[in-house]
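[step 3/7] fold_predict: job queued, chain A
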Amino acid sequence: MFIQSEVVATLRRRIAQEGWAMAGVGTGHAAVTFVYTVGLQKSFAHPDLIMFGIAPTEAEGVIDVIAQRVKAGEPAHEGVMILGAAEVPLMPRWADAERIRLLVPAQLARGRYSYLQIVWPDSKGRFPWEARFDKRRLRSQSFLFDDCREFLNFSDNRPTLQSKFSRSTPFGNFSVGS
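[step 4/7] structure written:
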């Protein structure tokens, strides 16, 4: 993924000042939107964060709350619900490093691809891997963790990167991979 040198410089300044920075991808009518952090790994020995399918301004607010907690010594843990960062409970899941490499620019990641994906539930509070999850909500979140094939109904045992990232979103169709 390409990112302008001015943006990289701005994010690096923020990391130097705060220990971490946040970048958003996609606005308005973009095919996909996501927000991610850089710097949490190096500064706080904590995985960085990534969140899909929420308007960037809202996602930035949620990610900021979680990152500030990390900075204050309250880490997020895979599979442990996060309360109070949003109006709904959130669940962090380990993101696959190879998928993260497709999304986070190398000049920002600097070889650190340990990320927790912040996953949000449907309107009834059910997460995608839970029974009776509203599968219509799958269109608005991309998933970067391996066990999503069960609830996405992929026919083979190991979906390809293309199948993982081919997704219709409220913002249009999105596809990454070969």
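[step 5/7] annotate
The chain has one domain: 5-171.
The radius of gyration is 16 Å.
exit 0
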